[in-house]
Amino acid sequence: MKATLKLLLILYICVSSGITLAQEGIWYKADVDFNERLIFSKDSISAERYKTYGVDTPYWESNRALKISKTLIEDNSSYMVFDLPEGDKAGGVFTMIDNKYLIVHTPNEKYGTIDILKELPGQQIPHRVYLSEQEVKNIDSYKGIAELTKEDLVSAIKFVQSYDADFEKMLEKNPGLKSFSLSRMAQNLYHLKLYQLGYNPYDLPVEGNYLEQFEGDEDLKTLFENNTYFQLRF
Question: What separation in angstroms does the CA of 140 have from each of 1, 36, 68, 144, 191?
Answer without folding.
Answer: 38, 19, 34, 9, 16
